[in-house]
Design a protein that fits this description.
There is one protein chain. The protein is of the alpha/beta class. It is built from three helices and five strands, in the order αβββαβαβ. A five-stranded mixed sheet has the order 3-2-1-4-5, covered by helices on one side. The longest helix is centred in the N-terminal third of the chain and has 17 residues. The protein is elongated, with a radius of gyration of 28 Å.
Length: about 130
């Protein structure tokens, strides 16, 4: 005998909305916590060294093989050094301020020495040269 009075058994409904909310919250956290760096203003091939350098510096001065400079989106030697001088101020940068120099391996030593002299005159006592492993 067939009983028509009882409904057929049903599966419990899966709730997908909370899973979507969790996925979006994870996506938002990844985007907020990710460190985005500005792209390099031009290609520079750093010199090779026996030791790998520390990455992630905030202040990076880019110098091309022809001597063109860029610092935080500012191009041109005079404007770059004006910005660097503004960062250091009249009191100098102090021992904790480290400027990383990402110079092309074909940069002339004379140009590099002149840049180092100007950096010292605007207040940078510590500079690091970015290198790559061979």
């Amino acid at each position: 005998m067939l009983d028509l009075g009882t409904p057929p058994p049903t599966r419990p409904r899966e709730r997908i909305l909370p899973m979507i909310n969790v996925a979006f919250l994870l996506l938002i956290m990844v985007v907020m916590l990710a460190e985005f760096t500005a792209p390099a203003p031009f290609d520079v091939i750093p010199p090779e060294s026996a030791r790998e350098d520390r990455a992630g510096r905030e202040m990076v001065l880019f110098i091309r093989a022809d001597g063109a400079m860029n610092f935080r989106g500012v191009a041109g030697e005079e404007t770059v050094f004006a910005k660097l001088a503004a960062i250091c101020g009249s009191a100098g940068c102090g021992p904790d301020a480290v400027l990383s120099i990402k110079a092309d391996q074909d940069l002339s030593g004379v140009v590099f020495a002149r840049v180092l002299g100007r950096l010292q005159s605007v207040g940078f006592d510590r500079v690091e040269i970015v290198t790559v492993l061979p």
